[in-house]
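Colleagues,

Please find the record for the two-part complex below.
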Amino acid sequence: MSLVRVEDLSVGFGAVRAVDSVSFTLAPGAALGLVGESGSGKSTVAAALLGLHRDTGARVTGSVRVGGVDVAAAGDDELRRLRGGVAAMVFQDPLSALDPYFAVGDQIAEVYRAHSGASRRAARARAVDVLGRVGIPDAARRARSRPHEFSGGMRQRALIAMALACEPDLLIADEPTTALDVTVQAQILDLLHALREETGMGLLLVTHDVGVAAESVDDVLVMRDGRVVERGGVAQVLGAPRDAYTRELLSAVPRVDGVRGGPSGSGDVEGAVGDVVVEAEGLRRVFGRGRRAFAAVDGVSLTVRAGETLGVVGESGSGKTTLGRMLVGLLEPTSGKLRHGGAEKSGKGVVPGVQMVFQDPVSSLNPRRSVGESIADPLRARGDRDEDAIRARVRDLMARVGLDPAHYGRYPHEFSGGQRQRVGIARALAANPRLIVCDEPVSALDVTTQAQVTALLAELQRELGLALVFVAHDLAVVRQVSDRVAVMRNGRIVEQGTVDEVYGSPQDPYTRQLLAAVPALDPAVAAERRAARAAGAHAVREDGGAAGKELAAA
Amino acid sequence: MTTTAPVAVKSRALDRALTGGLGGLLGGGFTGFVLRRVLGAVVTLFVLSAVIYAVFYVAPGDVAQITCGPRCSPAQVQQVSEQLKLDDPIYVRYLDFLRGVLVGQDYSTGTGVLHCDAPCLGLSYRTDQQVTELILNKVPVTGSLAIGAMVLWLILGVGTGVLSAWRRGRLTERVLTAVTLAGTATPVFVIGLLLMILVCGRLQWLPFPQYVPFTDDPQQWAWNLLLPWVSLALIEAAKYARLTRSSMLETLAEDHVRTFRAYGIRERSIVGRHALRGALAPVVALSANDFGSMFGGALLTETLFGLPGLGRELVQAVRVVDLPVVVGMVLVTGFFVVLANAVADVLYAVADRRVVLS
């Protein structure tokens, strides 16, 4: 009998049909990936397996059976036994998924008690036991910590421990690694893999990241607009996709090891690389004072020339955003020199000719002003007063970034994520900058949209001879768009060079570690890398050590 | 790791003492947090006392004339003015006042010396009674009123709020909302009066309220205060119900609540244990403020039910510009507001350790 049998499942919210006639089965111990972009309905399917749509006003039709239980027909008690006992869910954001007011161990113990009826003491022991199994060092002590005292990776481990507590037959992981750094992501995926081998659990993995699926599952369903467009073995679907959308999705995925086939190809810029636009020397920025002083950027030197893209890549806390903000003038360096176009930066404030594109296109646009007005802001800020000229310029810019100039008066919520980022780019272009610093410009976007936005940036750069600084955590995206790349760690640049040098023959051990952690699209390669990481086997301890340091600092 | 830890702690403490200044001396951690909070409270009270002094100094009216009475001769007024040291510059009088608070003060009464002990807030211009004593006599009355009313309004308000968040959109919620809104919309003298007429007059279930100290007879104390408590609680409860409801709805929508639902935890336990705990933070903060301000603001209730509390005393003192009494009263009110807020902050920090870190 199959562990999960979904037949003709449809879920509707109001007038929207989020899931449309989805059917699949999962054998005990098997691993299935649900892959799709945002809005494809993949998380809605996962939630339906646990009956989480009950009493929410969603219309659910079709049949869902998990571990022999008919989810739609099950009574409240039966459904509670199913949730956590038969199928356990691991959520995306491990910080918000745990109650900040309770110790991690107590939360796991509560779940265990609800299902086993064990004593408080036994439930606590169980919590410590599972925390130990997911690789939390000194689990007995750390079980008493609150979630905020854990690092991101440890929190995700704690959530997995909660899932393990009742020994479920099925683990449902909804974007389990999306909020994590790439090296931590590799550790969590390895952990899930090892636990599956150990316990024989089935796995349903929901992810937008094709590479993550390639690492972790046997079979894959590709979803789009609530429907399954393709299904099959992971090697076959990713290696030889039959559906047009799957092919489009795969070709949009930036590759860290492939040829630089990105739409940009900006390596061979016409007119080659020009004058120095910005030059930083020994740049340092300290936050806090006295005992709490902490150098976010600690002695960074770099040069960016007209017409070239410098990729700045690093994990969270590496100081890349702080560096980007200093280059624009949003933050004052504590020490070091910053020269724009040969002139040393003097005084405070944003430097003329330098603009920024932000990560979150939703929150970086004022929701109460039309996008046209937002794009016009830099023009007005520099003193333009001729309304007709401003409007004409904004319409030009909108057309230039691929927006309909007739949408001048529309508001940000009327646009999709990719379109909003185009608005952000148009706004950055308005004042004819020589340098644009893009801080994670595409990390909130789906891969197909990502590819369009990076292509636009490359095209603009070619035409306008812009210098770009592209700050991102995603090594593959950085490779795709950059001419040169700087790898940051703990406020310092550990390695800097042309893209081919850094990615082709990384010199610094940290760069090598980062590259090894990027999920491979080919399942065979992924398995090979996993074996290599297991041989290294120090990864787990490193995560624990980092968390220990955080704790000591607090 | 374990062997080096004590050394690290010691050197950090030293480092803190050397470089951290006052905040550093008080330390990080929980004790440091509490100490910093208390220090902040003391500073607030000093600023408050100075502001009140300044306000009454610029206020119009001849204090000596008012204190002496309408039929005093100019000479008598002059005498009063000298006796009360009204001719001294304001900073001298303020420093005098501060000295009284910190070390006590002696007053000449013509025939002998009246000693006023350390937290001395001066003597009433009108009755020559020590202000500290006067206030201490009234604090238990207003305190009894405030504590009982707060307990009732918290039970009523939080209970209603939780129920209406849980039963959102159903009949229960609509009825509860209507009832609490009606309570809030009715002034205390209407609710209180109606209750008195009904419960004490018509039904004769309770005696007409009359203050009995707790130390004399706890049962009589409670019976007599029941009506004032209920009237105040009915008025305040709606505010708490609304706050609790919106705060609950917010926490119920949070990711960690979804986690516990997905793990088969009972709804009752999710609402009562996880959502309520998160939702209580703003409720605690608001009740701290309300509790504190009861000490200066329960005037209508005190008057209506004939309770000899601080509110009534304050109104009388303001009418005759009895400066020491007014300053003392405002300080005591301020003291309770600040104290209640400090307690609320510490409670916060106990519930949520992240507060200490930030």
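The longest helix of chain A spans residues 182-199.

Comments are welcome before we finalize the supplementary table.
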